[in-house]
Design a protein that fits this description.
- The complex is a heterodimer.
- By secondary structure, chain A is an all-alpha fold.
- Chain A folds into two domains: 3-160, no CATH class; 214-459, MetI-like (MetI-like fold, Orthogonal Bundle).
- Chain A contains 16 helices and two strands.
- Chain A has helices at residues 3-28, 40-76, 80-84, 86-101, 113-155, 162-202, 205-210, 227-258, 261-276, 279-298, 312-337, 340-348, 353-382, 385-390, 408-417, 425-459, and strands spanning 214-215, 223-224.
- A two-stranded antiparallel sheet of chain A has the order 1-2.
- In chain A, strand 1 and strand 2 form a beta hairpin.
- In chain A, helix 8 (227-258) packs across helix 11 (312-337).
- Chain A starts with a helix and ends with a helix.
- By secondary structure, chain B is mainly alpha-helical.
- Helices cover 63% and strands 5% of the residues of chain B.
- Chain B is built from 18 helices and three strands.
- Chain B has a three-stranded antiparallel beta sheet.
- In chain B, helix 9 (215-246) crosses helix 17, helix 12 packs across helix 14 (331-360) and helix 17 packs antiparallel against helix 18 (406-437).
- The radius of gyration of chain B is 31 Å and the shape is extended.
- The two termini of chain B are 56 Å apart.
- In chain B, 43% of the residues are buried.
- The chains are: A mainly alpha, B mainly alpha.
- At the A-B interface, helix 6, helix 8, helix 9, helix 10 and helix 11 of A face helix 1, helix 9, helix 10, helix 11 and helix 12 of B.
Chain lengths: 460, 441
């Protein structure tokens, strides 16, 4: 029985448990709720939780364990030499899964002769095992639910502290939800670490970190040096920051120090609108509009500096536009956090507004602004769609902003969306790139948060 | 004291210089604002200008003769026999109909063969005709007046995208075709109409941009948003309630807080890698399924929702909690009966904004395989809507932007109009919600 039909049954059982528990508690107290330790609903809720939680936990565990067990059993049918080969086993397993899903469709595609026959055999074994496991799982889960229901009903007693029990269970559920954040981080690290380790087994780490040539070829003999990608990433981010930081900062200064309240109320949401636009829009803007426009001016028909529409400057300019609201709203918050007394003091001594800003407010806000710029840099480094669509595909170490460049994020996309086998170095390199990206942005974020927090404490 | 004869009201050179510096500084601030606004208006202008044509489409109205000897050689109207007649047999009927339409318009066929006229119609037109005939076999033997999709080139000519100069190097669609189009335009058979199929239709193969729609991808997006809403809202609220109301000050709490702050700033592509490794490779969930996309986007949206929910909980004054505790409510009752309902508008606002973010996110979807195929059929059942391969609006837009024909760019911008329309509506709802229910304590 699939989970989709099991879950409604469990929910119905839990609802039944709630009603039954409530009834039973009330009847034990002689129909008078004042004779109970907790509210009748608490007794009902306890029964419902006892019905639901162990069954759900079992179901989750079972669905995690089944694929592993079944794969292990099916893989046991294959000869040892096939199992030892790293790519062959995963390829065979995916064939088996496809055959199991559509027994007739795979006749021709799985190949001919003994391999096809053994695959068909394995696929049959696979489907029987899956079916048996699923049937067994449904039965056990339902029995567990019923057992929980019965046990909880049996334990109801007017003096039972049902509320405390229910609330303790609820609190542990809340804790579970909160720890999901840690689990997500662990999941990110674990998933990328395993791929990265696998990659470094196939490709030397030294060549990856210090190689200056990025030339993947799916036939083998790839050169996968990260330096050109890192350079492209940093160069494009630098262009973006060179656009976004001055405009964003001055916009924030104008908004927080000069603009009338009415103008501020109008301009701030408009800027935030820019921040809410999805990156695919900026990507398309770079690809269709900004790139060709730049190519007309700087390309072969204009100044002749640019070879194609995709270049570091295309992606950098558009990304800069995207980051303006990010920088301005962060800086705005930070400028507003500088105490008014500092401004009043400076203005009282006869400084003009701009002098007050340059000599008093900005130095006081500097750590926060640096933090904001670091956050913007981390956004720029992790940005994907704009560079995928606007920066080009050539990985090169070049100083010319009109050259096509590529970034870590763009190559993660191209390595993982291609036709490469997931066990090959060309696909696994994406995990190493992702790890690098994660560490890079995490470092910038931690640094930025540290700087911002340290600064905030000064005035609070 | 220098120059006693000078009035305080006439500024000296130093004051003037300082005032000029002040004016310059202020002007550069204004210039920055104007630059940002120019970027915004430019972007909006480009989106509207390039995308609006996608909502109109050129159609050709033709009267097609349906001779029995070609379409039903056995003459028995047996559906099985009719289905054996392929679209190749239908195409010449369209050529003949075009030729007749041209004669009625008083123009001549500039080509040696009538077959060449076919480039004016969409490649799907014969199939369109065949589907109609199979549905209504009694039409055979008579004639049928029907509206057919024009080809992307003819459509582009009506929209000004295709000109005689731009066709100079083309083989299949030549400037002579434009003369034919002009003649049909004159007789009113070729016309531009509102294109409902763009809003409701599915993706089409690469050679038929005129037939592509974003409806199926929008369904994929909807399925993902439902998954995100069903998971991220309860989990996010539970996590925030714990952190804000119950969590003791210890290292676990600190660790959770640091994690949430960092996850909010992790690049979205990293969540795509997580989704690929965890949900597809490890858990074996189907590739390209909206369910997987929804799960990935849930993990990505959670920090946003947690941060805004915590702010909403913090805004509820302690006196509410103290009053509830004072009359004997437990802490759990206090939170669920009093604090949460009061914080609900803020929580919903944050959730809508998180959902809007998730709706526009593209990069992680690329990694879990929501591109690279043509999602031609809308999902047949609710379960399929979550589990069958589908695209999502931003992924579909990216897919279109990768295709070579400029007609696809128009589709992509049109899709962006729709996407941004949804986002604006969601953000507006969030703002209204905040206005309507905001309370100051």
């Amino acid at each position: 029985m699939p989970a989709s039909s099991l879950l409604p049954i469990l929910a119905a059982l839990a609802a039944l448990g709630f009603v039954a528990g409530r009834r039973r508690a009330l009847s034990l107290a002689g129909g008078d709720a004042r004779g109970l330790h907790s509210l009748p609903a608490h007794y009902g809720a306890e029964v419902a939780l006892f019905t639901l939680l162990p069954a759900l936990a079992l179901l989750a565990l079972w669905s995690l364990a089944t694929p592993l067990a079944v794969n292990h059993l099916v893989a046991g049918e294959f000869p040892a030499e096939t199992r030892a080969e790293p790519g062959a086993m995963s390829l065979a397993m995916s064939d088996i899964r496809r055959l199991a899903a559509e027994p007739d469709a795979g006749q021709g595609s799985a190949g001919q002769g003994t391999r096809a026959a053994s695959l068909q055999e394995a696929a049959r074994l696979y489907s029987t095992l899956r079916a048996r496991a699923s049937g067994l799982a449904s039965l056990t889960v339902l029995l567990t639910a019923l057992a929980g229901l019965g046990y909880a009903l049996w334990r109801i007693h007017p003096r039972r502290r049902a509320r405390s029990h229910v609330e303790a269970i609820l609190e542990s559920l809340l804790i579970g939800a909160a720890t999901l954040a840690i689990l997500t981080t662990l999941g990110i690290v674990a998933s990328m670490l395993s791929g990265t380790i696998e990659f470094f087994r196939l490709y030397p780490a030294g060549d990856f970190f210090f190689g200056t040539i990025w030339a993947p070829s799916f036939g083998g003999g790839s050169r996968l040096g990260i330096l050109p990608l890192l350079w492209g990433t940093l160069y494009i981010s630098l262009i973006a920051l060179a656009v976004a930081v001055p405009i964003g900062l001055f916009a924030a200064i104008y908004l927080s120090e000069y603009a009338s309240p009415a103008a501020r109320a109008l301009l701030k949401p408009l800027l935030e609108l820019l921040a809410g636009i999805p990156t695919i829009v900026y990507g398309l803007l770079a690809l269709v509009t900004v790139g060709p426009a730049l190519a007309r001016v700087f390309g072969d028909e204009g100044l002749g500096w640019m070879q194609g529409a995709s270049a570091a400057i295309t992606a950098g300019l558009v990304m800069g536009g995207m980051l303006i609201p990010f920088v301005s709203s962060l800086s705005d918050d930070i400028l507003n956090a500088v105490p008014q007394a500092l401004r009043d003091g400076s203005l009282g001594l006869g400084a003009t507004r701009s002098e007050t800003l340059r000599l008093v407010v900005l130095p006081a806000a500097l750590p926060g602004i640096v933090g904001a710029i670091l956050l913007a840099a981390s956004r720029a480094i992790g940005e994907t769609m704009i560079v995928v669509m606007g920066a080009g595909a050539a990985a090169r170490l070049s100083l010319n902003p009109f050259d096509a460049m590529t970034t870590i994020t763009a190559k993660i996309v191209s390595q993982l969306t291609g036709d490469a086998d997931f066990a090959s170095a060309e696909a696994l390199v994406a995990f190493a790139l992702g790890m690098t990206l994660f560490v890079l942005t995490l470092g910038l974020n931690v640094l930025a948060l540290h700087v911002v927090r340290k600064y905030r404490e000064q005035y609070e | 004291m220098s120059a006693p004869n000078k009035s305080l009201f006439t500024p000296g050179p130093r004051t003037r210089a300082r005032n000029r510096a002040e004016a310059r500084f202020r002007a550069s601030g204004l210039a920055a604002i104007l630059a940002a606004l120019a970027f915004l208006t430019g972007l909006m202008g480009i989106i509207l200008h390039d995308g609006a044509p996608a909502f109109r489409q050129a159609f050709v109205t033709l009267t097609v003769e349906l001779p029995e000897e070609r379409l039903d050689p056995n003459g028995n109207r047996d559906p099985a026999d009719l289905a054996r007649v392929t679209t190749f047999k239908y195409a010449p009927l369209l050529d003949a109909a075009l030729l007749r339409a041209l004669e009625e318009a008083g123009a001549e066929n500039p080509f040696a063969k009538a077959k060449k006229l076919r480039a004016l119609l969409s490649k799907g037109a014969p199939a369109q005709l065949r589907a109609r005939v199979l549905a209504e076999p009694e039409l055979i033997g008579g004639s049928l007046t029907m509206r057919f999709l024009a080809s992307a080139r003819a459509d582009g000519y009506l929209k000004g995208r295709v000109t005689r100069e731009s066709l100079a190097r083309e083989r299949k669609f030549t400037p002579a075709h434009l003369d034919v189009a002009d003649a049909l335009l004159g007789s009113g058979l070729l016309e531009s109409r509102f294109n409902l199929a763009f809003l409701t239709g599915s993706d089409a193969s690469e050679s038929r941009p005129e037939a592509a729609g974003i409806g199926t991808a929008a369904l994929g997006s909807l399925a993902m948003m439902l998954v995100v809403l069903a998971l991220a809202l309860p989990i996010g609220v539970a996590a925030s309630v714990y952190l804000e109301e119950f969590a003791p000050q210890n290292r676990l709490t600190d660790l959770i807080e640091v994690n949430i702050a960092n996850l909010a700033a992790v690049p979205s592509i990293v969540f795509g890698i997580l989704g690929l490794a965890l949900f597809i490779q490890f858990a074996g969930l189907p590739q390209s399924a909206p369910l997987v996309g929804g799960l990935v986007l849930t993990l990505m949206t959670l920090p946003t929702i947690i941060i805004s929910t915590r702010a909403a909980l913090r805004a509820v004054p302690p006196s509410i909690r103290e009053a509830a505790l004072g009359v004997g409510a437990s802490r759990m009752q206090t939170v669920f009966h009093h604090v949460l309902p009061l914080a609900m508008p803020g929580i919903l606002t944050g959730t809508i904004i998180g959902l809007a973010q998730a709706l526009g996110e593209t990069a992680p979807l690329l990694l879990i395989g929501m591109i690279g195929f043509v999602a031609t059929n809308p999902p047949a059942s609710p379960a399929e809507a979550f589990l069958a391969p589908n695209s999502a609006m931003p992924a579909q837009i990216y897919e279109w932007a990768r295709r070579a024909d400029p007609a696809w760019y128009e589709r992509a911008w049109g899709g962006i109009i729709l996407l941004i329309g949804f986002l604006l509506a969601m953000n507006l709802a969030a703002i209204l919600l905040r206005r309507r229910f905001e309370r100051r304590w």
